[in-house]
Structure formats: C-alpha cells, structure tokens
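Quick one before lunch.
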Amino acid sequence: MTNPRQIALIALRDIHAGAYADVALNKVLQKFSLPNLDRGLLTELVYGTVRRQRTLDAIINQLASKKSHQQPKDLRTILHLGLYQLRYQERIPPSAAVNTTVELAKNNGFAGLTGFVNGLLRQYIRLGEKSPEPLKLPENPVQRLGILHSFPDWIIEVWLEQLSWAETEQLCQWMNQTPTIDLRINPLRTTIEEVEEALQSVGILTRRIAHLPQALRLIGNTGAIQNIPGFSQGWWSVQDASAQLVGYLLNPQPGEVVIDACAAPGGKTTHIAELMQDQGKIWAGDRTASRLAKLKENARRLHLQSIHICTGDSRHLPQFYHTGDRVLLDAPCSGLGTLHRHPDARWRQTPESVVELSRLQSQLIANTSKFVKPGGILVYATCTLHPKENEDVISTFLASHPHWQIQPPRVDSPQLAYSTPQGWLKVWPHRENMDGFFMVRLRKTNNSE
Ligand SMILES: C[S@@+](CC[C@H](N)C(=O)[O-])C[C@H]1O[C@@H](n2cnc3c(N)ncnc32)[C@H](O)[C@@H]1O
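Model of the S-adenosylmethionine complex:
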C-alpha cells in the first residue's frame, strides 16, 4: 500500500483504540515503505489530526446533523483527515483534499455516504470563503480558546492561573507547532565546531542556543536521526535545550557520587557523565527495565564508563541512603511542557492523573532526599507546567523537611535567565522557544543526619 491518507487512517484507528501516537505512527512507517515526501505527509496527517481533534470535532458538530461522537468511528476519522487538510495544510489544494477524502470514504465502507462527506467539506470551504474563521466559537472564553486551539478546558485553566489571556493563547499556538530537534554535543568525543562542520557538509543547517555551550538546534528537515553525521561515533545526543539546563543546574563534579533516581532513557544521566569528564560514579536508577536497556545502549554509543544501572523503585532503595554528593530526581510527570512532542498527551492526561502524579512525586522526593549526604544537593525537575507537580511538591517538601533549602542559581550562571524570585526555574516555551520545564536545586544542611 502506498496511499499516505489510507495509511494515516490505519494509524489513527490504532490511536483511537488506545495506542500511543508515536508508536502507531512508527508501526505503519516501518510496515509500508514510502518515499520521503509521503512519509512527511503521513506524519503530518497523523500527528496533526490527533493534535487538532477538538477543533475538527467542533467543525463536524457545526456542519453535520449528527454530532461527531455519534458518527461511525472511521467516518469521523476520515472527516478529521479531510478537514485537517482544508484548515491547516495550505500546500494541499482544497479540491485535492476533498477528492482524496471522498475516495477514502468510498474505499473504507462508506460508499453510500460519499455525498455527505463531499457536502460537508465543500460547505466548510464555502464558509471559509465568506469569513476568515468558518468555525462558530462559543462565548465562554475558556471553551473558546480550547476549541480554537484544540486543548481540553482544564489545561487552558491551568495556564490561565499562571499567565495572561494573551500569553495563554501564545502558549497554545506554540504547543501546536512541529517540534524542533536539539543536539547536545559530547565534549569527550568531539567539539561543537567539528559537529557544525560535519552537519554543514551534508547540508544540515544548525544554530547555537544562548546560554548552552554544547547545544545545536537543527533547522529544517534532517531525515532519520541515525543518519546524521556523528551518531554512531557518539559525538552527540538528542536533547532539548531546556533539558540540558538540568545538568548544569545539578553541576556535578569529576570524582563525585551522583544518583539519578528516574534516569531512563538516560538523556540527563549521560549529560551528567559528560560534565564529570566520565570520572566518578553515577547510579542510574529507574523502575522500568526496558527503558534502562535504552540507557545502556546510549551510554555505550557515547563511550561512557562511569554509569551503573540499578533497576528498582526509587521510593525505596535504602542502599543509597546518605551516599550521594548529588541526586537528580527527574520525576515522572504529566508532560504539559512537551505537548508539542506528544500530540495525544493532551487527551491522555486529566486533572485526576495530575493529582495521582503529584502524590508519586511527593513520595519520590521524600525518599530520594535521603540518598543525599549532609551538605549535598538534590535537583528536582519535571517537563510539566502544572503547579501541583512543581511548586506545590517543593513547598510541601520544604515545609516538612527543615534541613533543606532552595539554592538558587549563581548570579553568573546561565540558568539565572530562567530563575524566579522563589529560586526555582520555570521555562515557558512561548517565551524561550524551548520545551516547558521546571527545576529547582535544593541543598541539605551540613548538620542534618
Ligand atoms: C521523565 S522520565 C525520565 C527521563 C530521563 N531522566 C532522561 O532525561 O532521559 C521519568 C522516569 O521515571 C521512571 N519512574 C517512574 N516511577 C518511578 C519510580 N517509582 N522509581 C523509579 N523510576 C520511576 C519512569 O520509568 C521514567 O523512565
């Protein structure tokens, strides 16, 4: 099969049945061999329709007599695909979007409904000719933003608690973009200049990122990551700029003992090893063995020797008590700072899952703080923007752990740019053009047991 729209329908069926969007997409990309352009279109259609689902459903609700959720499942997905192309894909002529969608309906058991599909899509085009916004939006301002930018109301509300309306809208728009790829250069194998040159020689454009000495942002489409020069030599890792800030905030030194309590697949563990010149001992703990296998593979590719694996639940592991000079807790979280990378995440997380995660995060910080020696450091980080998983976890921890205090970034450190008056760092993606992140450095006093 070579029709990217038909293949998109197959992947979307899987996603609507519960599969992760990236897993479902990779499955079809591996199964069907497509030319590069069609692979690009397939990826755009799958990720785009998942991301814009709420907006696309609102259009169906407006134009059809039956609500979107009452339509047969496949028909709803086919309409999503057609409407997505009409609304968001300027490169696809409207007539091609309509004809290919009608064809898709015909080939997937809806031969009797091709008139309905054709009519609905053409009605949308006609409305768009009359008004720049064919979609009728509700009066309620939260729902209005949620429908326009395709987010559940509760996420809009979480952002509105922290940002103005205008910034909330900017953040919504930012999260609907195709994500960029950043590299972190491994200074133990090469230099940033050498990587820049190697990439340039194969036509890959890059740019440096302020405050991050080993970071390069890739510009434009680069093809498969494994084919970028230097991958097999361990010259670099893929890691977003804001995730690179975490290693610098921890500031590990050669010869120290560092415990990375939620380490897999090892983006930050390998950064820590590089910052320590691969000298010292790093314990990489995680409860998921399959993810730790990826960490091992990454450490091997980067030629790092100082990393040791420990499979287990970091809410326990008493063998680590009072052994770490520095501990990193890069906690499992709702990922509200990386919604652009995971198009289905906004539909998977709920206010209830956030409460559940914040409970786990509190248990993890309470126990991993015991891993730290007196006078040592613990960095808590998440890639979410929800105060319940960030500020609240830290405030509650500090209130019940008098031997701990926040150690804000030094005035001469690059992280200062993201620092808040409370001493923790919050990276807002629409301001900094990088993934959303929260991180804080905590210090245990010398006289604690
Ligand atoms: C945000 S990810 C870590 C990403 C990693 N630090 C990196 O930079 O590549 C969170 C990790 O926590 C792990 N995890 C979740 N609950 C855990 C627990 N109770 N104990 C140990 N690891 C846990 C998950 O398996 C997941 O790999």
